[in-house]
Design brief:
Strand content of chain A: 5-15%
Radius of gyration of chain A: 19 Å
Largest interface: A-B, 50 and 50 residues
Number of strands of chain A: 2
Oligomer: homodimer
Chain lengths: ~160, ~160
DNA sequence: TTATGTTAGTTAGGCAACTAACTATAAAAG
DNA sequence: CTTTTATAGTTAGTTGCCTAACTAACATAA
């Protein structure tokens, strides 16, 4: 299948807008979390607070759709700050279980409050209800691209 | 203004989807351009082909909404590959003018062809027309966030 | 029981973005 | 005309992502 030139150009424009939105929002989030936490570190703490800890690195990497080396680095930074503990699995000598510490829960709560404030500021005077109407279309696009990636990786 | 908890959660989900879409598409683009070009390098060549060369580093950084050090690094990689030439400005001893070389134009053409192929593969069987209907909403969001950033930086 | 293959995680190296702090030049203010 | 301020660009260091290549441990089958 070949795209028309016009469709191709519109698609590029849409993906460019998405890249810029991502850049601006993640930069803002990174700023308000600094210097205690990086954004990926907050995201990982958030996952543990909401869905429980005790997961392995590989399962976390899959949940966040990042590579294992990325997850290794993020866990390493959190462990260095004492916000998580890495325990070895009794049943599988290869696996490691990730546990959040009390300090980790405190850091997460602080980050969460700062992000809530940021969200209010950033979307002050913006019609969020109208924006949310487009959420489904983006979710479908994400699912399609994810499926394509799995095909490429032979995971389909 | 405070967001409702529900709105906040939906907004986070939407921004998360945007981050993942950006991640998947830019990773795919990076793969097909490698190892000749990085994605930021292609983007810069594309800008010079379409809008003409001879711009300064600072103006390019502003056009791409990236920091000056990022642009310095991107230009440095392109210059090392002989795809651009950096000329000093006769009128302003601080400024540098960026020129694309013939090798740069060739590299751009090759990258463009590869990206077109990728686009066809990635969106094979996807309803692009339906997707494009949401482009305006994303453009508005981008503009809003960009305006907010300018307020913060005192550029309003 | 050994050989084969898979899975968990790390290391190494590269791209791309950021901020903070710097040099050099130009422009404005005194 | 000198001093101050602003602008152009670089350097240094961090975050965060990637792929490729590796070790260690587990699972299965000859």
């Amino acid at each position: 299948m070949t795209l028309s030139a016009d469709q191709g150009a519109r698609l590029v424009a849409l993906l460019t807008d998405i890249a810029i939105i991502n850049q601006l929002t993640s930069a803002a989030a990174t700023r308000v979390l600094a210097p205690q936490l990086g954004l990926s570190e907050y995201s990982l703490l958030n996952h543990m607070v909401r869905r429980g800890d005790g997961e392995t690195l590989t399962r976390l990497a899959r949940a966040f759709q990042v590579s294992k080396p990325s997850m290794t680095a993020t866990i390493g930074r959190l462990a260095a700050k004492g916000l998580v503990r890495v325990e070895s699995d009794a049943d599988d000598g290869r696996a490691k279980r990730l546990r959040i510490t009390d300090a980790g829960r405190n850091a997460h709560a602080l980050g969460r409050a700062r992000l809530a404030t940021l969200q209010s500021e950033l979307f002050d005077g913006y019609d969020i209800a109208a924006l949310i109407e487009h959420a489904d279309a983006l979710a479908r696009l994400r699912e399609h691209l994810d499926a394509q990636r799995n095909v490429r990786d032979g995971l389909a």
